[in-house]
Protein 1
Amino acid sequence: MSDKDNLEKFVSKNGFDLCVLCKFVTEYKTEVNIESREYYIDGVGQLCNTCYSTAEETLFEQNFIKKYLDNFF
Ligand SMILES: [Zn+2]
């Protein structure tokens, strides 16, 4: 398996998904349904606890700014 494959799939050698931001090995095996996971963001992927907290704040801010702009214009 090439480095490129590892990068695209974000899976550890023993089958656990990696955090798409920091590549931390998460507790979820690849075959675990995303609906039964925590810290999974649609269209982004599996995150670790730490990155999820950060991403949630960022997404919240972006949504807030977008709503603000939508209302403004
Ligand atoms: Zn992470």
Protein 2
Amino acid sequence: MVAGAGLAGLATAVWLAQAGHRVTLVEKRGRLGGRTISFEVPGIEGRVDNGQHLFAGCYEALLRYVDTIGSRDKLLWDVPPFAIKTGPDHLLTLRAPRWLPGPLRRAVGLSWMVWPPIPLRERPAALRTWARIARAALRPAPELDDLTVDRWFRQIGAPESLRALVLDQFVIGLLNEKTERVSASMFVQTLHWIGKRALSGNTRAGDAVWPRVSLHELFVAPAERYLRAHGAQIVVGVGVTDIEILDDKLTGVRLSDGRTIEVDAAVLTLPPWSLTTLLDRGRLGQYDHFTPVRKIEPAPISSVYVWLDRPLGMRRLAENLRDTTIEWVFDTTGMHGVETEAGHCYSLAVSASWDVVHLPNAEFTAAALESLAKHYPEAAEAEVLRTHVIHQPQATFSAQPGFDELRLPQRTPIEGLFLAGDWTETGMPSTMEAAAESAVRAVDAVGDHLGTTAPPSDTSD
Ligand SMILES: Cc1cc2nc3c(=O)[nH]c(=O)nc-3n(C[C@H](O)[C@H](O)[C@H](O)COP(=O)(O)OP(=O)(O)OC[C@H]3O[C@@H](n4cnc5c(N)ncnc54)[C@H](O)[C@@H]3O)c2cc1C
């Protein structure tokens, strides 16, 4: 049994089914997808996502999942997502001739970061900061988990100008948390694994990859079809309420519809805040092993989708704004490549949106439109046809100092019971890749337990 049908649960179920296991997938909500869902908005053709999701060429486990369910053709590969907009006419982005070969084009194109457009006297300190960051990322030190990124940047003398232009937003973009709250260790570990994948031959590790369809069509519907074709049972609207344990061995799983199902193995892929409820109410709470999960806190993301009667003339599919409420403008219509009658759709997002997550929709929308007006002259002429606000207070986990200690491995002290989910041990931030990587590890552990080898394959079948 796999409990929870977010990406971690879907990938675990798909790969277990692929390995020939008889899988039951149980999801508490009425639909599959977890934090990667899409829904219908009245008057809009197709589905709207719960927020723009970006993934990178280094998301190898997620790409493997996409390959297994056969939806790689629904991805749009782009150059690295560095596009900093400091004003209507100023965009710092990849600047290199297109004819240069891939890796060289990226290196040349992003070389401005080494000598960034900040006051000249601060550039040597900026260079030293990059060198310190690179050195720390080479061998992440566990002590960094005692510090926030903000404190660490101060310690290494990162100039304020570099922080304001590049660094702080880079951290927020990677970790969905403010520099004053997030662990320096998480930042450095993230750079470490991206760098490792780049150096191991993945020349597109740092590239952006955009969904060309809704998250539902990319991740969820193909997985559902795959599972049904492989004989899996899918149960929605029913949650796990307790675990049956005898002599530290899993014997069954109790469900909210009153049934108890006997299983050979169960993988719980619930987010930390849902697992905490299970600890409070059920037998798992008796095991100290799970206690750390209670301390994991969520972090919010807020978005407003805006449909305009014309495009804004963006140079990149995603641009990172400075000095406005909105941090990211994503050209959703540009990514999907289809203009609809509803107008040209943009997703305007704020990561770690502590400052705006409680704003009423009208106030947040007004601030978002003001951000657009400040950076895009075309916005002044454009008619706003429709808007749709989505505040997600529990979008990701918040990797505060001490977070390394709170992550649990996929194997548990209870024989036959396993965990997966973006928050479990992977060394990665709260991302779709962490969810998929946790599934790789959980499937491996289940395979060991059941005496089968069940490595996720990288081809669709
Ligand atoms: C707005 C937004 C933007 C994001 N942007 C990005 C991005 O750009 N790039 C990126 O990589 N990541 C991004 N993320 C993060 C990414 O979506 C998550 O890290 C990932 O989807 C987590 O997957 P998961 O399977 O671990 O958890 P979830 O998706 O939360 O899945 C857990 C599932 O368990 C179910 N459940 C809970 N309790 C029970 C129970 N008792 N019984 C059965 N089922 C239960 C839940 O309903 C849920 O479906 C974003 C997230 C949000 C919300």
Protein 3
Amino acid sequence: MAEKGRVCVTGAGGYVASWLVKLLLSRGYRVHGTVREPGDVKNAHLKKLDNALENLQLFKADLLDCSSLLSAIAGCDGVFHVASPVPSGTVQNPEVEFIEPAVTGTLNVLKACSEIKVKRVVVVSSGAAVALNPNWPENQVMDETCWSDKEYCKEIKNYYCLSKTVAESEACEYAKRSGLNLVTVCPTLVLGPMLQSALNASSQILVRLLKDGSDSVNNRAWKIVDVRDVAEALLMVYEKPEAEGRYICTTYMAKSKDLVDKLSSLYPNYNYPKNFTEVDEGSKGFKLSSEKLQRLGWRYRPIEEILIDSVKSYQESGYLD
Ligand SMILES: NC(=O)c1ccc[n+]([C@@H]2O[C@H](COP(=O)([O-])OP(=O)(O)OC[C@H]3O[C@@H](n4cnc5c(N)ncnc54)[C@H](OP(=O)(O)O)[C@@H]3O)[C@@H](O)[C@H]2O)c1
């Protein structure tokens, strides 16, 4: 296989990053993966990936430690900045838990990229940095020109959305000022099989629908995308010279009840929620479009495949026992 060069992936052991590392290794890249605890069993899956023995090198790095980032990025042509805290429960101190690692962490990565003169940086942002905008015209599909409203995120205390919005907008401003070649990708809710052993926050949402058995859940609208398709999108915007700016990465919109209907027709024996409460989701009910990414050549798999492969993965990891 032709050698493709050397790239760094931050937060390599996480859900999305693990699929990206796997894809990069399969396409002939040498990968520097940053992890906070190289010896931790939660990162053990990385070393088992095909070609990992020869082409994957793990670096201990924290987003708030610039010298650790410099060591990991040294010698790389490109960087995929994936690491960022993703909430799975209540937040005690949003500034420390989310805003600082997301915003300062992203700027630290970008500054290291400038210093090392990497050719392109791909930052994983989020649909959370796009969709929380109460001023966006009703019924107009959201595209890359739409940004979440920072004041609104603060008002509704959605610190994850705030962290991703501030991190992405500051990254774009930094790139404009410094001339760094930056592309950002904004995936919505990422589902699909896990490579890592720990259940990540977005997979927890589907696991809960399968086994929680609650009397009632909010009938929220989810914008879903498969983790393998996200990895393909990240590599595509890295490799295609014409890629520029922001890319929304999303596929299907489904309400909680639609998901349960689909899942229960495939797997009738799980403990699904019994009732659904309609909720007014404001701007979160809006539609997002991935047209720009599709124009670049991105394709995605059917929702049934996402759900079937997710359930198989949770079964194999024992999360549905
Ligand atoms: N999953 C989704 O639905 C979704 C949707 C849109 C965007 N995203 C974005 O995709 C990226 C990956 O998310 P994920 O779902 O894969 O979550 P994940 O599995 O929880 O991965 C998050 C990664 O970030 C690392 N990290 C957090 N704080 C760090 C710090 N201070 N220094 C170094 N590393 C740090 C974590 O490392 P440790 O293992 O050491 O904690 C972990 O590897 C994030 O940027 C997230 O915002 C995810």
